[in-house]
Structures are given as structure tokens and as C-alpha cells.
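Supplementary Methods S3. Input chains for the assembly prediction are listed below.
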Amino acid sequence: MTQTPAQYDVIAIGNAIVDVIAREDDAFLATHALTKGAMQLLDAETAEFLYDAMGSAVEISGGSAANTLAGMAAFGKSCAFIGQVRDDQLGQVFAHDIRALGIAFDTPVRTQEPPTARCLIMVTPDAQRTMNTYLGASQFLPALALDKTTIQAAKILYLEGYLWDPEEPRAAMRTAIGYAKEAGRKVAFTLSADFVIARHRADFLALIEEGLIDILFSNEDEIRALTELESLEAAIAAIAPKVPVLVCTCGAEGAIAIVDGVRSETTAAPVAQIVDTTGAGDLFASGFLTGYVDGLSVEDSLKLGAIAAAEVISHYGARPEADLKLLRAQQL
Amino acid sequence: MTQTPAQYDVIAIGNAIVDVIAREDDAFLATHALTKGAMQLLDAETAEFLYDAMGSAVEISGGSAANTLAGMAAFGKSCAFIGQVRDDQLGQVFAHDIRALGIAFDTPVRTQEPPTARCLIMVTPDAQRTMNTYLGASQFLPALALDKTTIQAAKILYLEGYLWDPEEPRAAMRTAIGYAKEAGRKVAFTLSADFVIARHRADFLALIEEGLIDILFSNEDEIRALTELESLEAAIAAIAPKVPVLVCTCGAEGAIAIVDGVRSETTAAPVAQIVDTTGAGDLFASGFLTGYVDGLSVEDSLKLGAIAAAEVISHYGARPEADLKLLRAQQL
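Predicted C-alpha cells for the full assembly:
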């Protein structure tokens, strides 16, 4: 198969979400029966109720895959994003912010209900984030929104597991995988969250068995849930032979990668003060993929992931604030 | 005149604005012919153009008088706000945030164009803020939105000079002053910005001459502009005899108050790192007024202003993040 030169380093399909971030204490989580550290989906009514209950907030563009692209763009990679917003003010905020980072974003805006997605995030004094997502327009990304040429023009197609849950985007992502594979491109996938795996485990395993996933991102809990194995090592051993690249983040313990059967590890990068862990996994992926695209060693790619993750947890919000190119130059 | 007990410590009339904050360098200000440190008004088209040009941003509720109330609420004072939003997402954000602080906000939402106000704020590496305001719905606050009983139920009516510029809110504020004075309440006024003084100097001087202003907030530039005197001391000397309380902030130099002819001063409170000066004057007013309401000495009221101002310039955004009651207990 001949490959045309890639226009983008990565194209991602993900939720187009604005984060609504407030500091809350553990009592707030208890009152509203929220599980610390988890992500849950809300319907419109519950989202409104919870928003009314939560404190004064800050709005910052988010979305898992979009955050990963924000990191890669900050590292200087060329990126494109596909995701669904509505023609409302939060949709304008999301579109503005992603384009301001130099990321191509051309998904046609939706002109009907529901509104643009938002994620109500409570950050507790221990810097943990508890996410409550109203998917709104984001779940209505149609396969029609995909441009085959654009998807085939990226070295890597990056997919967000969160978006496997709603039906329309799932179909769109299946289509996109076909386009990417047809052009000989790599497909990267992040498992995103336990509840997604609980609902779509068979699908994910089928994708992996069929050899459609080239780079799989996971955390400890997710790979255990995927394999239904208690032991992290057993879970890694079960999946690693089936994907060319497996990355498993382990929070403060660092991260592990198994590439073509060879294991590499990194410790977490130092952080003066952990403020808000939102986006840690997303930014880890941005650093690792940047290293992958740049042909760095697996160990250095892991380190770059740790550097990006450390930056994003040192402040509120899931988009990088510091100059990631400079941090790479200083710390790698 | 008999006074009924006050339900609120302060009721403020101000712009209902969401701030859109991005880091930009001096070259950005130069390219777009923006005057560093100033506030300018934008029409809808220019606001859209400038938003397109500016980088990825963060949205935080703002508005000068609303910021002052946010500070007073954080100090534990009871507050009410009057300001105009539209029934759009930014309007929901503003209303949510101010109510989440425990501030009463019952101004009927406007159901027609234009949209809720926003202020595009560029923060340069020197921590200076350059503000570009699209007033939108905010300038259509009608006198009808005022509830006489509510205004008369507050010890202090606080008015934002910015809102003297558009016609409808100016008429509303004149009405509100009448209500407050009729009930024997105090009227506080902040001059807000040079351009407002340039346009409404005669009005402001008339209010002062008529004895309608009990507490006047100003900064060095504003009191010079108001009096058309070069010397700060001469400007203060010209205005002080005409208002019971005159407060003049002098940036890093601290602040001066002249109360019934007696002069008090404070130095600025120490800040580890000045990040964003947005809201410094607004929060100074919140600290001073809190001291005034609590019957503190003028010197302590000035100190409380300096404490609140120091907190708000230590992070992005013009609303306090730290526990101001705790800072008061520790630092006063």
C-alpha cells in the first residue's frame, strides 16, 4: 500500500465539552451521592439540579480527546478534531478555544436541541476530580460528519472510549477506523472509564482481537475491567500480545508501556502542588503520542507523557497552561 | 427619619458580565491597537473579531460591582445585585455564579437580543489586564427592574460608574439613588474608568455637589480626571470636603481615605506573585465596605481592602478564590 504524506500528526474523534469546574468538599459529594474520582453521565434535568447545587464555577474547554489534542498542539504537533457542538454560546467557546490552539475543527455545527455538552466537575481539597457529564449535542455526532480524506490524512486516528457509548458516534468511529485502516494509518484508542468498559467490553475486545487497535491507552482500573482480571500484571499480560503498543497509566506510580513485547516504565514527574487531577490521563496520552510521532524511544515517550500530565495537574482545568515545548526541552 | 432594620448590608447595581480571559503578549496588544491597562467598549462585530483573534480562554463571571459583592459575600456580608443578563448560556453562568455566592439576584432575565455581556481580557506577562467589553444585554437594565423596597432594605447602595454610560441603566441608577436617600441609606459610587469620567464628568460632579454620594471610590487617574487637576493631592483636596468618605487607591502604593476631613493611609498587602490585576479595585472596595459596615476604624477598613485586593491579583479572574474571612482573621 502506498501512503500519501500525512497532513496531520493526529486526528481525534471525541466529545466536544466545556468543563464547569468548582471547588467542593467531601460533604458535597456525599450529599449528592457522587463517587469521588468517577465520571457519570447526567440527563438534562439532573445536570440542571446539580449545577444549581454547586458553587461558583469556572468554564474551561475540555473533553478527553480534545484535551489530548490541546497537549499535542502545545508540543507543536499538527492536529485535527472531530466532535459535535450546537450553535450556542458554549459551542462557540469550545470551537474558539480548540481553533485558537491551531487545531483544525470543521465538524458542522448542530442547529437543534440539545445544547452543547458540559461536564460539571467538583474538585475536592485532595485535588481529586469528580465528573458529571451532560452529553447534549456531543452524542449526536453523525458518521456523515466524517470526511474520509481528512481522516486518511492523519498519521494517527485517536478515539475516545467515552464516545463509544452513544450510538451515533460509535457508528461514526467504526466508519473512521475503516477509513484509517484503508489508508494504512494507525488507530489509537483510550478506554476512558470503567462504566464505558462495563457496557462495551465485548466491542472493545473484538476491536482488539481484529487487530484494529494499534495503540491502546488504559489506566490500572480500566485494563482490569477490560480483562476481568484482578491482577494488573495478569491484565497487562493478557492484552499486550494483541496490540502493538499498550500504555497503562498508574497514577502517582507512573506508567508502563509494552511495545512489541518489550516493557518500559516511567515514574510520575514531580509536581510542586497537585491542584486538580482532571485531564491527567488525557495529557499523558498527548505526551506519549508526541514521542511516538517524533520517533522517540518508548521510555522517552513515557517520560514526555509524565511531563505533560504533571503540568496539567498543577492547576485547574484539563488543558495545558505552561509551554510544553519548553518543559520538553528542559526535562527530557 | 425612622429606619427599618436593613435586610442587606449592600445592594449593588452593575454590569452583569462574564469575563473571557486569555494570556497574550505585548505584541498582541500592539497588533490590535489595545491600550494596556485600559477598558474599552466594543460593538458586537469588533467583539467577534477580537475573540477570533485571541487565544484559548477561560470564562469566569465578572463585572465590577458584582466582583465587589463577591468579595463582600466572601467576607460574610449579606448582599443583593441588580444587573441585566439575557436568557442565554452566559446569562445562566453569571446568574448561577452570583447566586452560588449567596448573593440575592432577582433582576428579570431579558428574552431578546443582544446577548449577555462579556469582557475579553488579555493578561500580559507583567500581570496587567487589558479589558475589552461588549455590553450586550447589560446596557438595557430598565428602571422598572428596580424594586424600591429591596433597594431601601440595604444599608448601602453601591453603584458602578461603568454603568452610568448607557442611558437606561443611568436612569435606573438615578431612580435608585432617590429610593436610597428617601430611606436614609448610604450611597457609594465607584468612578470605574477614565473614559466614563470623560463622558460624564459634569454628571458625577453634580451628584457630588448635591450631596448624593456618601462614599466615593476612585483611583489616582480617575480622581485627577474628575477634577482635571494634575496633582493627586490637589485632586483629593478638591473632592474630599464634598463627600463624607473618599477612598483613593494608588495601585502598588496602597490607598488613601479621607473621612470627615481625617486622612488615613494603607500600604498594599504583600503578594507572593502578581498573576492578574483584574478586579484589584473591585476587591479593594469589597474589603473597605466590609470594614465600614462592620464599624472598623478607617485604617482597618483600608487594610481589609488591601487584603482582598492582594488575594484577587494572586490568581486569574476577578472573583476571590481564597477564604477571605480566614485572611481577615489572620492578617487584620
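The mean pLDDT of chain B is 96. The two ends of chain B are 35 Å apart (CA to CA).
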